[in-house]
Amino acid sequence: MHKPVLLEETSKILITGGGVYVDCTLGGGGHAREILKSREDIFLIGIDADETALEIAEENLREFEGRYSLYKANFKDIDAVLSMEGISEVKGILFDLGISMYQLKSGRGFSFEDESFLDMRIDKEQKLTAFTIINEYSEKKIAEILKKYGEEKYAQKIASEIVKRRKRKPIETAKELADLISSVYPKGGKIHPATKTFMALRIYVNSELENLEIGLDKGVMYLQRSGRIVVITFHSLEDRIVKHFIREKEKEGIIKNLTKKPIKPKLEEVKENPSARSAKLRAGEKLV
After folding, report:
1. Within its chain, how far is the Cα of 144 from the centroid?
2. Would you tell me how many other CB atoms lie within 10 Å of the CB of residue 88?
């Protein structure tokens, strides 16, 4: 079972009464389950672009049947989803932007040890894959992606090695790519050498940052007065977008910033779930 990050903290901030709540990144339904458990007068709308995640969530939420609707969609299309439900305002919105354990084990090339095809699509219906980027994009473009979306300081060195290797044969699996990066990366770091490259590719393939900006903007429009938005991020690029968004909406008098400093997982949670270590929670409350 995938362990949702900052579960207790999320529920405490997000849930302020009955009404409609939207989980924009449903995953396996961990946060959604906690939201539905908290009050019987809550109806939940779950959104996820990953069909497999929706199937898992459906199973995990079965006991709350009749109190939720699930949609295969990208959260940037939250307006279309709410329109289909005939809903004009909601009590709370959650974005949990981390990749789930299900996805890491999905055989889609998200994991360094994955011998499967270098895919990295969250929505399997979209066309662009990490394989295309690694095997067809120019050295300059690959380096640019790794630098911009992964903040990878060895981007040029990695891109150069990728282009050199693919001349011999295509780089087909996640493990091949991870091993290639390890071979050119300085030894002795605390994290796996491929961490930033894989993150950059995943973000680029799925247009994660652009979609986040759109989703936040649309989401706040649907929040009712005193409704709350909670966003959990896992790297600085996402966090920067969320921090800037909340500050801007605060300046406009639309949102009250509930987290002047981001909330981070307690030491016990990180010990139990190491993937929680980089999580940051930010939240805002609608004023108008």
Report:
1. 22
2. 10
Helix (H, G, I), strand (E, B) or coil at 122: coil
For the record, the structure tokens of 18 come out as: 């009955």
In this structure, which topology does domain 7-102+208-286 adopt according to CATH? Rossmann fold (3.40.50)
| CATH 1.10.150.170 at 127-205, yes or no | yes
- For residues 75 and 79, what is the distance between their CA atoms, to the nearest angstrom? 9
Spatial neighbors of 114 by CB under 8 A, at least 6 apart, are: 107, 108, 173, 174, 175
CB 16 within 8 A of CB 114: no
> In whole angstroms, what is the distance from residue 230 CA to residue 95 CA?
6
Pull the structure tokens for residue 25.
């990144």
User: Residues 109, 118: contact at Cβ < 8 Å?
Assistant: yes
Which backbone phi and psi does 160 adopt, to 5 degrees?
-60, -45
Region 122-150: what's the mean pLDDT? 97
- Of 49, 44, 15, 42, the C-alpha closest to 32 is 44
What digits encode the pLDDT tens for the residues 167-209? 999 999 999 999 999 999 998 888 899 999 999 999 999 999 9
Sign for the CA dihedral angle at 254, 259, 265, 268 comes to: negative
What one-letter code names the amino acid at 211? N
* 105 vs 199: CA distance, rounded Å: 16
Q: Is the CB of residue 5 less than 8 Å from the CB of residue 34? A: no
Specify the domain boundaries for CATH 3.40.50.150 within the chain. 7-102+208-286
pLDDT at 1 over 80: no
pLDDT per residue over 221-240, tens digit each? 999 999 999 999 999 999 99
| Sole residue written with tokens 């087909």 | 172
pLDDT tier at 102 (50, 70, 90 boundaries)? low
pTM of the entire predicted model:
0.94
Q: Which tokens in the block code for residue 86?
A: 């005939």
Amino acid 252 reads: E
